[in-house]
Amino acid sequence: MLKHGVNSLCRCCPAVTYCTFEYDPVVWLLSCLEVTASSRHYVDRLFDLDPQKVLQGVIDMKNAVIGNNKQKANLIVLGAVPRLLYLLQQETSSTELRTECAVVLGSLAMGTENNVKSLLDCHIIPALLQGLLSPDLKFIEACLRCLRTIFISPVTPEDLLYTDATVISHLMALLSRSRYTQEYICQIFSHCCKLQHWHSCGFKSLPQPLLCANGPDHQTILFNHGAVQNIAHLLVSTSYKVRMQALKCFSVLAFENPQVSMTLVNVSVDGELLPQIFVKMLQRDKPIEMQLTSAKCLTSMCRAGAIRTDDSCIVLKTLPCLVRMCSKERLLEERVEGAETLAYLIETDVELQRIASITDHLIVMLADYFKYPSSVSAITDIKRLDHDLKHAHELRQAAFKLYASLGANDEDIRKKIIETENMMDRIVNGLSESSIKVRLAAVRCLHSLSRSVQQLRTSFQDHAVWKPLMKVLQNAPNEMLVVASSTLCNLLLEFSPSKEPILESGAIELLCSLTQSENLALRVNGIWALMNMAFQAEQKIKSDILRGLSTEQLFQLLSDSDVNVLMKTLGLLRNLLSTRPHIDHIMSTHGKQIMQAVTLILEGEHNIEVKEQTLCILANIADGTTAKELIMTNDDILQKIKYYMSHSNAKLQLAAMFCISNLIWNEEEGSQERQDKLRDMGIVDILHKLSQSSDPNLCDKAKTALQQYLA
Amino acid sequence: MREAAARERDGLRFPSGGAAPLWPRSRPIGWRREPGLAPRPVTQSGSKMAEAGAGSLHGGDAAAAPGPAEEQELSRRLRRLYPAVNQDETPLPRSWSPKDKYNYIGLSQGNLRVHYKGHGKNHKDAASVRATHPIPAACGIYYFEVKIVSKGRDGYMGIGLSAQGVNMNRLPGWDKHSYGYHGDDGHSFCSSGTGQPYGPTFTTGDVIGCCVNLINNTCFYTKNGHSLGIAFTDLPSNLYPTVGLQTPGEIVDANFGQQPFVFDIEDYMREWRAKIQSTIKRFPIGDRLGEWQAMLQNMVSSYLVHHGYCSTATAFARVTDTTIQEEQTSIKNRQRIQKLVLAGRVGEAIEATQQLYPGLLEHNPNLLFMLKCRQFVEMVNGTDSEVRCFSARSPRSQDSYPGSPSLSPRHGSNNSHVHSTGADSPTCSNGVMSTKSKQSHSKYPTLSSSSSSSSSSSPSSVNYSESNSTDSTKSQQHSSTSNQETSDSEMEMEAEHYPNGVLENSSTRIMNGTYKHEEILQTDESSMEDSCSQRQLCGGNHAATERMIQFGRELQMLSEQLCREYGKNTVHKKMLQDAFSLLAYSDPWNCPVGQQLDPIQREPVCAALNSAILESQNLPKQPPLMLALGQRAERASCPYLNESYLFLLWGFPSRQVTLLLDSLPMPLREKVQKRNPLENSKFATAFICAGISSQQSNFKATAVSHQTSVFHLFWKIVFILQSVKILLPHLHSEKG
User: Fold this and answer.
1) Inter-chain contact B273–A283, Cβ cutoff 8 Å?
2) What's the farthest any 2 CA atoms get from each other in chain B?
3) What sign for the dihedral angle of Cα A282, A284, A289, A290?
4) For chain A, is the Cβ count within 10 Å smaller at the N or the C terminus?
């Protein structure tokens, strides 16, 4: 109703009477009129000619708006903001007046998000930043408080702080002025230092650019302005608020930032190193907020490699603290943050995973994360239900993430996780939840658990996890696809009972399309999964794969810039070219292209592994009945094989030797011709040389080959 | 060192002495000075032992235990971890008990290392050992660690807790009141043969910790410094640290604080301290502020009234503008009766009771019997008036009890010794009596030779009935070997009319010098106490002995009569038996049942009588303050109180303390700070002193508590408990 403004008062009055039926409508009508009228009066007084009266007006306004959202909205609608900003910016105004203006503006910003938006629309930020140049401390503090309130609002874009390069250095300079400037500036920094990548916690499955397109990210800007040195000493401030805000600032600065983290370890304040100060802040009698935030700092530093994972401050302090944060006694928000941070901390270290898994029954404790909203909360009170609902998704995804980290490496832990009540059902349900965050975390968890051979054969099969997984893979964003396809890779392993049904549900098509993705990880996972699928597969599947992939795509992949993709593609080829009938069949249809590809790779600049893999493919081809001829008729290839037999690398020599021995194998048709041809090429001499080799493998192989000639 | 020495003295007869008891307790001052009674001299090494072993029954093991430096380190750490524990009353576990273990257990390295020495064929060969002492409730949070030196053949090791008397041929956890965490399967056993999956397994090289949280009665374990989560809830009290082994080669080492713990237990304790503090801070007081104050005042007042501190109570009431429920005369009457009992003049007390509260004893035959038994004991002691009247002098102070409040139970009890000599010494030492005591000083004996002969003859005259001649010679020998001090006191008994000499005074001075810790007591009083050390049956008077025998017969008859009317009563029987047993010894004070003669035994009788009187007047038989203390002592029904108490002992942000102390007038403040036995109850004292001596401080203390609004009723109560005792002498001295 307030949006209607003064002119539409008459129209809005009936509305008031409707919604406040429990009061006397007349009284409310009057009070409503009175409020708006008085608001008008406050604004009018800002335009008084007497500066003293203006000041009094602002002070009265200040008292009127405190804690009164309606009054705030009224004043904004009535246009108080531009006038206040004008007064604030006016050099001729007394500092007292300017300070009071900043206070009122700060008070207005405390209201709803709409208030903040209105203030931003009036360009309040440049005006306040300008105010920071004033010599008057009181005024500066008022401006900072107002800026702080605006910047911590989610509607304010963080970039507004970085539009002018001089602002940051000026803020750094102001840090020494008073405990209020310290508190507010730290708070501004910690809210205006957002990471460029979207996910809030850990799980860097991909190397993502730390720098965004527009230049250095916020962390780097602040770091380059000496944030670490300027803020470090605030950690030992006498004021709790200052300490806390400085700590928060560091937790944001150091998050996934090796540069900041490495610097932090060596900074000392009053003769104490920062890690020691953080550890003190972890003490159990410190406020939870402080424990949690300093655990985050230490976690970032540990992940950045600045602190070893077996350091006692991680093993005996940070980890137990984070586990405590997951306990039922903590608030839901704290539990979410605690679990996410812990997941990040232990993600890559199996020893930390083992310790976490036995600490305070963490695995059982996490099961509780799935019990929101509880049946009790639904009945007893609506407020709590609302609160639970709001956090339910967050809780579930945090638990999935932590389970994923816990089970990443250790088979026993995976077993314990799966044995937790209804665990597989929860994951399956999680895979089809509406919240993408939960789905993603559930897939991660599934991926982590799918590394267990035993689980693949048992619980994964019992719960038919492949079904929801395939569903997740349809039209999912890349981030999700990456994890889901990795999981699929594991499910497609030869011994996995899920393999068949997955194939039947059109996995080949899906995986083939993944190999065409722009995203490297997806290409790797796609071709990897195909490789797994082709391992000891039947003829039909192999043909399907080849058909689905198309030879063009195969060549595309063989010329991929990424060695991983190349390796997996070669692996796929090798798996396709196994058992004699398959080899002959495939070579009869795609022989030419494959031989071309092989030549190309053997000629190209590739590392040993790639060449070895290629030679193995040749050896497989040489095993075919008809396929042999493709090699024997290709002198170029034969020369290459000969070359690799005398290569300096034993692995390549061995692979080439496989090729030769397959070609000269006695019992097969036409072996005599092949033996003769190869003897003419001088292969036998090389074999004799190799039979004297110091490498027992090579030696053996060469001797067996020579025996084929003797027979 | 001084403290240690004091404890050592207490250790002679009252092992539970030591730090100031919470309640006024009569403490015979001259008693311990008797040379004949001292079982061992107070030497340097003796006192050290007392400090290190903390009254442990196994003092002999100290020789095998680690060196004194480590012992000191242990004591230091234990004091830091459990500041609230009074280690003289409730010693902390420091080693495994060589007595409380199964045969298959071997102990070494100062009873810290446990190894298995049985066959280990099956579970029937399991063996456990308990620590020397149970975990004191005052710990709040208790922790110990066990390092697995070797897992032996199968590693069937259990670490946990068990109550006294639980079968030691078992692993901890298998039986009722027994709890354990087992290494082979990582299961927890909660008084059951089947375990629950709990934590990881443990084996050679692991350090397993066990933490008992006595605040919420739970227990959790740690492995190599990592908490494994709650294992048991609803634990009973008085559990002992326990380990059990089952197969050959199993060896574990305990750490009760000898070494730093792997797990950061202090951090855990800090968390709980903070938790309790915030509970207290958040406790809603709101509009009921005024009520709290009234309740507090009422509690203090009722305590004072209950114990008959008449004038203190009146002063308190005046200051706080409150009224006392009970009438002045009634308080005074009770006070008089109590004093009689505490002075050992039970016969008079019974008479007075019958006169003032007719019908009371008739309705309480048990109480009457208890009183009569005590009267008999006092006759043996020579204190009761029925025997005293036979002695040469008339009991001068008999009817001249001062009405002053200075007769607290503690003071009153001191009189007993004076009477035991049959002397005419005044019973107490306030203004009125001081003149009398001067008189008596002037009558003190000077001659030694004659008195010594008379004294040596008196024992033989006493040993008239059961005792044979050998006995009497023994006692004669005894008295003749006594040193000069003894003969001094002997003289006193006979030579009343001789003018006082230099000798007596000087000896008194020496004694005072030795017993500095009794400073609180006025010198004249203590000098009299000191002077009486040789006691004789019924004061050594033959007629009195006759009367005693007669009284004994009457008592026997009363017992039989009660038995007929109310059926058999084993308590009565025991009481009677104990009392009569006194006569079987030539020196009843030094016999197995001699404890009865201890004036401290008058207290329960006195309390019972007082309660009965109050009950008959429809007044609470126990002051609320005492009730609260009782709850605290049982660390029980009232969780808040328990927590608050721990909180109190664990220290309090000293800002408020300082604030309050500052509000006190300077001399009082000094006294408060100086007199306080517990550093942590500084605030308590301040609170009370400020409350009571409000003329000077205008209730600043309570005003402060209102302003900050953080004070919780219950811990206020605890503060009061802690400080009432400290406060009383203050009040007296202020008046004096």
Assistant:
1) no
2) 84
3) negative
4) C
Average pLDDT value for residue range A259-285: 92
pLDDT for the residue numbered A517: 83
Using a CB-CB distance cutoff of 8 angstroms, which residues of chain A are in contact with residue B226?
316, 320, 355, 358-359
DSSP E strand stretches across B288-447: none
Put simply, whether A413 touches B (Cβ < 8 Å) is no
With 70 as the cut, is the pLDDT of residue B416 above it?
no
In this prediction, residues A225-241 reach a mean pLDDT of 92
- Range B7-26 burial, b when 16+ CB lie within 10 A, else e: bbbbbebbeebbeeeeebbb
Q: What residues in B contact A283, CB-CB < 8 Å? A: 267, 270
Cis ω on the peptide bond leading into residue A373 (within 30° of 0)? yes
Residues in chain B with CB shorter than 8 Å from the CB of A358 are 199-200, 223, 226, 228
CA atoms of A483 and A446, how far apart (whole Å): 9
Do A316 and B226 lie within an 8 Å CB cutoff?
A: yes
Which chain B residue is nearest to residue A412, measuring alpha carbons?
B200
pLDDT tens track for A66-88: 888 888 888 888 888 999 999 99
Out of A208-222, B217-231, B449-463, pick the least confident: B449-463
C-beta atoms of B228 and A285 within 8 A: no
User: What residues in B contact A353, CB-CB < 8 Å?
Assistant: none
Q: Which of A284, A355, A359 sits opposite B267 (nearest CB)?
A: A284
Q: Kind of pairing, strands B226-232 and B178-182?
A: unpaired
Residue B635 is classified by DSSP as T
Contact B80, B74 (CB under 8 A): no
Cβ–Cβ below 8 Å for A320 and B273: no
Question: Strand B226-232 vs strand B218-223: parallel, antiparallel, or unpaired?
Answer: antiparallel
Instruction: Give the 3-state secondary structure percentages of chain B, helix then strand then coil, rounded to 5.
Output: 55, 10, 35
Nearest to A358 among B200, B271, B274 (CB): B200
Whether the predicted pLDDT of B152 surpasses 60: yes
Q: How far is A264 from chain B (nearest CA, A)?
A: 25
pLDDT tens for B491-550 read 333 333 334 333 333 333 333 333 333 333 333 333 344 344 456 666 667 777 888 888
> In the sheet that B239-245 helps form, which strands lie side by side, from edge to edge?
B96-101, B127-131, B239-245, B158-163, B178-182, B187-190, B196-197
- Residue in B closest to A329 by C-alpha: B275
Name which of A285, A316, A360 is nearest B271 (Cβ-Cβ): A285
- pLDDT at residue A164, rounded to an integer: 83
- pTM passes above 0.80: no
- Arithmetic mean of pLDDT, B54-64: 39
The residue of chain A nearest to residue B272, with distances taken between CA atoms, is A285
Phi/psi-derived region of residue A445, left when phi > 0, alpha when psi is between -120 and 50, beta in every other case: alpha
Q: What's CA B180's distance to the chain center, in Å?
A: 33
pLDDT-above-90 percentage for chain B: 21
pLDDT at B432 over 50: no
Contact B226 A320 (CB under 8 A): yes
B193 C-beta neighbours (distance < 10 Å), count: 11
Residues of A in contact with B271 (CB under 8 A): 284-285
Over pLDDT 90: what percentage of chain A?
A: 32
Is residue B613 a contact partner of residue B358, using CB atoms and an 8 Å limit? no
Residues 308-337 of A with CB under 8 A from B: 316-317, 320
How far is B216 from chain A, CA to nearest CA, in Å? 15
CB atoms B271 and A316 under 8 Å = no
DSSP A129-165: HHHTTSS-HHHHHHHHHHHHHHHTSTTS-GGGGGSSH
- Tokens 């104050």, residue located: B293
| Radius of gyration from C-alpha coordinates of chain B | 29
Mean pLDDT for all residues in chain A:
83
